[in-house]
Design brief:
Chains A, B: This is Phosphoserine aminotransferase. Chains A, B: Catalyzes the reversible conversion of 3-phosphohydroxypyruvate to phosphoserine and of 3-hydroxy-2-oxo-4-phosphonooxybutanoate to phosphohydroxythreonine. The structure is a homodimer. In chain A, helix 1 (about 25-35) packs across helix 6 (about 250-265). The first copy, chain A, has helices at about 25-35, 50-70, 85-95, 110-120, 235-240, 250-265, 270-290, 320-330, 355-370, and strands spanning about 10-15, 75-80, 105-110, 125-130, 150-160, 160, 165, 180, 200-205, 215-220, 295, 310-315, 330, 345. The longest helix of chain A has 21 residues, at about 270-290. Chain A has a seven-stranded mixed beta sheet with strand order 2-10-9-8-5-3-4, with helices on both faces. In chain A, strand 3 (about 105-110), helix 4 and strand 4 (about 125-130) form a beta-alpha-beta unit. The first copy, chain A, has about 375 residues and is of the alpha/beta class. Chains A and B meet through strand 1, helix 1, helix 3 and helix 6 of A and strand 1, helix 1, helix 3 and helix 6 of B.
Amino acid sequence: MAQHDAPAKAAWNFAAGPARLPDAVLARAGAALFERGADGAAAIERPFTGAGFREVLADARQRLAALLGVPDHYRVLFLAGGAMHQFSMLPMNLLDPASGLRRVAYADSGYWSRRAMQEAARYAEVAVVARHAGALPLTAPPLDDWQVPPDCAYCHITANETVDGIAYPAWPNTGAVPLVADATSCFLSAPLDVSKFGLIYASAQKNIGPSGLTVVIVREDLLRRPALAAPSALCYRLQAAQDSCLNTPPTLAIHLAALVFDWISESGGLVAMASANRRKADLLYSAIDSSQGFYTAPVAHGHRSTTNVRFHLADERLTEVFLTDAAAAGLHHLRGHRQVGGLRASLYNAMPDAGVAALVDFMAEFARGHG
Amino acid sequence: MAQHDAPAKAAWNFAAGPARLPDAVLARAGAALFERGADGAAAIERPFTGAGFREVLADARQRLAALLGVPDHYRVLFLAGGAMHQFSMLPMNLLDPASGLRRVAYADSGYWSRRAMQEAARYAEVAVVARHAGALPLTAPPLDDWQVPPDCAYCHITANETVDGIAYPAWPNTGAVPLVADATSCFLSAPLDVSKFGLIYASAQKNIGPSGLTVVIVREDLLRRPALAAPSALCYRLQAAQDSCLNTPPTLAIHLAALVFDWISESGGLVAMASANRRKADLLYSAIDSSQGFYTAPVAHGHRSTTNVRFHLADERLTEVFLTDAAAAGLHHLRGHRQVGGLRASLYNAMPDAGVAALVDFMAEFARGHG
C-alpha cells in the first residue's frame, strides 16, 4: 500500500475541557441537531417555547435525574455560562444577612477552589475551613475537624481539582451548613450521593458535552433564600420557577447534553462509568508509578483524580520533547495547566481504553529512548 | 407516483428565535463541528485555550467587524448567555456613581425595552426619556426632543421590538450620554453605523445562530468604568482583556456564528441582506395591506419591523383556525407572542423569498375561504 493510502493513524485528545465526546454522540449529533423535520425546523432552529424543545429539556432533566438518583426535593437546572458564573451566583443567591447568613465557607483544595473563593470574597467574608497541605505528595484537605461557622450561607468544596489533579476521597461533614460542590470535572464519572449536598454544579464541557452550559442540582429549601443581589438570569429561584427558561436557554447545548445522558444510560450508567474510569486511571497511574522515577505523579494515593491525571518528567527539560513526540504519535493536548506545569491526561467518560493504552505505550517507549 | 412516494412538501419555520438558519450553514455544520481532525478532536472537543479554537474566535471577530465596519476603538465580545444577561450587565458595568453616573436612561418602545428597564431598576433609578404612544397604529417613540439627564450612565433603546414588531426608523441623539442598543432581532439584517453607539448587544438566536451566545460591541472608553458590582464572568472589561476567554466561552456556538458570518459575507454582506429583507417584508406587508381589512398590521408605516412582521385577523376568532391550517400547509410557528396575541412571521436573513411567497399564497387562499 502506498504511503499516502495508509489508514489514518488513531489520534487521541486528552484535553481537560472542552474535551472528547463519545463516538456515538458525535455520530448522531449532526443529524439530531441540524436536519430539518416535518415542521421545517432543525433542533437548533426550534423555538425554546415550543413543544419540540420542551420535550428535549424534560427528557434531559429526567434522564440526568435517573442517572444520579436525584431525590425529589432537588431541582435540576440547565443554565447558560460556565462554572465561573456559579462562582458569583453562589454568594449572590445564597447569602441571607437578614437570617444571619452573612459569610461563606470554602475549603482550599487547589487552583479552582481558590478562584471560586476569590470571586465569593467580592460579595462576603470568606471563612477558609480547610486547606490542602501544598507539600508533596499533594492531598485533598483533611476531612476531619471541619469547623464551619453557623453564620455561613454554605460550605464550598471543589470535588475534583482539574488543574491540580486532586480529588476528595470522601465528603466532609459540614453539619447544618449546606455543602456545595463544584463537581465540574468529575460529574457523571461515578455515582454521587446527591443527598449529601445542598447544591452541586458542573459546567458541561467535561462529561456532559459542549461549553456554555452548566448543570445545577439544588435542594429546594435553598431556593427560598432572597437572592436580592442576583441578576435575574442568574437567579436560581427565578430559573427554577421557569424550568430553566426564564430567558432563552442554550438549546443546542442542552440537546447535546441529552444525547450524552442517553449514551451514559445505554452504556450501563454511572456504575459502568466509574468502573471504566477506575480501570483507565489505574492503567495510567501504574505506568507512572512503575517507571522507576522517570515519570512522577505529584498527588498521593487515595487523592488522585481519575479524570485528570497529572504527572511530571523527572527531568523537566524533557517536557517539551515529550509533548512534541506525543503529538507526532497522535497523542494531543497533554500539556499541564500553566499554573502547575508538567503533563496532564484527562480521561473523561468518552476516552476509551485504547486511548489510554496508546498513551501508556508511548510513555514506555519515550522512557526507553530518554531514560 | 404513489402517495407515499410524493416528495416532501416544503415546510417553513417562522419562529422568532431560535430561528431558521441558512441552508448552507446547516449543510456545513455537522462536518464543521462534529468530524474529528488530525489532532483527534472535533471542533466541539477542542480546548478553548488551543490554537484551533483561538483561530475560530479570531476569524469570527474579524469577519463580524468587517461586515459591520466596526471602528478600531470598539471591542467585539462573544459572551455566554442571552440578552437577559445584558439587561443586568449594563447597569452593573456602566454605572459609575463616583463619577456622577448614578442613573440610567431608557426609552419605552414595547415589551423588551420594558423588560430591560425593569431589570435595570434593580440597580439604579431609571429615567424614562421617551415612550411609544401605545395607541394604534403603533410607532417607535418619537425621536425629537430626548432630554437625557447628564447623570445617566447610558441611554438604552431596543432597536427592534421582537414582540411588538416595531423598529426605530432612525437613531435618537442622546448627546454626551452613550447610546446603548439591544439590537438582538435586527442585528446583521442591514448595515448599522456602529459609531453612533456606545454599546450594541445582540443575542445570537436570531441572525447569528444558536442560543446561549450574545455578541457585544463596546466602545473602549466604556471599558474604563469600574464595574464594581459585576460578576467577573459578566464584566465587560475583564472579558475584553481576555478576548472573551476569561472563562470557557461557548465554543460550539461561536463556531456556528463564524459559519453564519461566512455565509453573510458570501451572500453579499449586509447591503444584500438589507435588500432581501426589505423585499421579503414588503411582500408580506403588501399582502396584509391589500387584504381589504381581512388582515391588519398594527404598526405604522415607517416603524414596521422588517424582521418581525406582526398582523391580526380582523375576526380574531379565526386566529386558531389560521394557525392550524397554516401548519397543515407547512407554515409553522406563526403564533404571536402571548403578550400581544395575533400572528407574527419572523423573516430573518435565513428565510428565503420562497418561504414568504408560500405564506402570502396561503394568506390569500385563507382570506378567500373565510372572507
